[in-house]
Amino acid sequence: MRALARVIAAAALALTGVPLATGAEPISARLAPCLACHGEQGRSENPGVPSLGGQPEFYLTVQLLLFRDKLRVVELMNAVMQGFSNDDLRAMAASLAKLPPPPPAGGNADAARMEAGRTLAEQNRCNFCHTGNYHGERNVPRLAGQREDYLVKALREYKSNSRRGYDAAMADVLYQVSDEQILDLAYFLARRP
Amino acid sequence: MTPRYSLSSCLLTALLAVSPVYAQPAAAPEASKPIPPVQPVPSTVPGRPDIPNAEVAKQLSNVAPLPFGAPADQLPTPQLKLPKGFNIEVYASGIANARSLRIGDKGTVFVSNRLLDKVYAVVDRNGKREVKVIASGMDRPNGLVFDRGTLYIAEGTRISKLENIEDNLDNPPKPVVIYSDFLNHQSHGWKFMGLGPDNKLYVNVGAPCNICEPPETNGQLRRIDLDGSGAEVVVRGVRNSVGFDWHPVSKELYFTDNGRDWLSEDLPEDELNRVTKTGQHFGFPYCHQGNFTDREMGWGRSCDEFEKPVALLGPHAGVLGMRFYSGKMFPAKYRNAAFIARHGSWNRTKKIGGDIIVAYLNKDGSVKSWEPFLTGFLQNNAYIGRPVDVQVMKDGSLLVSDDHAGAIYRVTYGGGAKVAAR
């Protein structure tokens, strides 16, 4: 996965001639390399790379900030975010927030796993902050239709305290969630419209 | 309680499914129709809320601070209220996530971060204030202590120091780590730090959860020598203390502690505690606010086993930084009283706190009463600022940090001081 990320990084940077924060070009040009990996229509086709469609603007702003200031550690994202001003982050987030939500994962869903995931999400009160339809709001991300592999990765990172949130709420919640439950939660959320 | 609902709906479904068999025996293929899926009310898992009403639940999600500090002219200074004779001004602004405050020997105001990675120095040159970053790339550097030229910084998993910092604000040295025996946990992983009368660094080691049996290494206050050696537990049963100070006369340690979340709108209240002996246990996770046992962890325990708080400071109010007032600017009644920042609740539909309160003590060290001092950060059930820490300046004025808007305010009393535009 890491190797793949590096390849994608290299490709993205090669396309644009490295530093994204050069200033003058329009926001759409700046975001082109982002969308090359994250998906131009809000849906990522790359394992481990999240779909950005339908994410709240506030959440996007905060994540861009966390990447720029290396508070959320993902080498590629830390590298490409260097040099952007706070205003740049605001503008990028505002633009990215207009991407359409990703469609839920297709195929025949296993009804028992969907039910298990739904029950877990409600027991752990994911729906309180991420909202009843898991579309998120403000600093809380959309989960519905997110890539399943990314959801598993993110939840495991929160559980192991290797990913920082903007606050510690996710670490609180995952303290008592098992890895098996993480798989069911991700299965359900990825298939939720 | 919840299983009853599940059971009854389960029984109901079973009855509905079964009864047609009696009414229309042997109705052939239709009888094998799938049973409609049961929609059980999910039971909660420990530490998670049991709130069936989704509309109510929506008002209980976390409060997110602004990611960038607000400019001075957008700060809510005119809406802030103080007792008669007091004034408030913006001391510094644009310091995103401004948290703990300490003052250097030469008057530098040090400001920490919790969500972000920086430590700042605010320098006053004839009333014009300059904000400098003196450390960055740090891991939740919330706790600060200044002692004889050195700034000590408590991060999530270590304590480091910057020697001779006030002479090197423009070219600060790299932090030198003196202690790192902490578990890495995001939940309550940030630290508050104070310098005790015994010249040791005191630091909280919070519970890595909302409610759980914390590991032996957590749920405590710990003290460490200035060179990082000699670590020992001071008290246990502390969920997460993000503020403490020593009484100017008795030298006893008082600390604030945040109560658990998701128990009820009104319970438990946050605590002010007083340490009279090393090794005391203050109840977490078994007993809350000194008078009731936890609904999950408290079975088989009694609150009589633990130290009781000296004051209850409001449910979910988020009591954080505190300092005893030993300055001379404020009226005599504030002498040796404790100013305490209440960050403001998130885990409550009707928000509470978002203010600075003042607690008055009796001669025996118990709390006589407490009352609001600086209010107005909470407007229409929403925060326009969230106070984190207080710090008495050499002239007796009081600094207040706000991690929501990224600002530091200065409270003064009487004439001669600058009055904020109101």
Compile the SSE list and pairings.
The complex is a heterodimer of chains A (193) and B (422).
Chain A: H1 2-16, H2 27-38, H3 57-68, H4 75-80, H5 86-96, H6 111-123, H7 126-130, H8 148-159, H9 169-174, H10 179-190
Helix pairs in contact in A: 1-2, 2-5, 3-5, 6-10, 8-10
Chain B: H1 2-23, H2 54-57, E1 86-93, E2 101-103, E3 109-111, E4 119-125, E5 128-135, E6 143-147, E7 150-154, E8 159-162, E9 176-179, E10 193-195, E11 201-205, E12 220-224, E13 232-236, E14 244-246, E15 253-257, E16 269-275, E17 287-288, E18 292-293, E19 311-315, E20 319-324, E21 338-342, E22 355-361, E23 367-374, E24 378-379, E25 382-383, E26 387-392, E27 398-402, E28 407-413
Antiparallel strand pairs in B: 1-28, 2-3, 3-4, 4-5, 6-7, 7-8, 8-9, 10-11, 11-12, 12-13, 14-15, 15-16, 16-19, 17-18, 20-21, 21-22, 22-23, 24-25, 26-27, 27-28
Characterise the protein shown here.
The complex is a heterodimer of chains A (193) and B (422). Chain A is mainly α. Chain A folds into two domains: 2-96, Cytochrome c-like domain (Cytochrome Bc1 Complex, Chain D, domain 2, Orthogonal Bundle); 111-190, Cytochrome c-like domain (Cytochrome Bc1 Complex, Chain D, domain 2), CATH 1.10.760.10. Chain A is 54% helix and 0% strand. Chain A contains ten helices and no strands. Chain A has helices at residues 2-16, 27-38, 57-68, 75-80, 86-96, 111-123, 126-130, 148-159, 169-174, 179-190. Chain B has 422 residues and is mainly β. In chain B, a hairpin with a 6-residue loop joins strand 14 and strand 15. The longest helix of chain B is centred in the first third of the chain and has 22 residues, at 2-23. Residues 1-31, 38-42 and 416-422 of chain B have low confidence and may be disordered. A four-stranded antiparallel β-sheet of chain B has the order 1-28-27-26, with no helix packed on it. In chain B, strands 2-3-4-5 form a four-stranded antiparallel β-sheet, with no helix packed on it. Chain B contains two helices and 28 strands. Chain B folds into two domains: 2-43; 69-413, TolB, C-terminal domain (Neuraminidase), CATH 2.120.10. Chains A and B meet through helix 3, helix 6, helix 7 and helix 9 of A and loops of B.
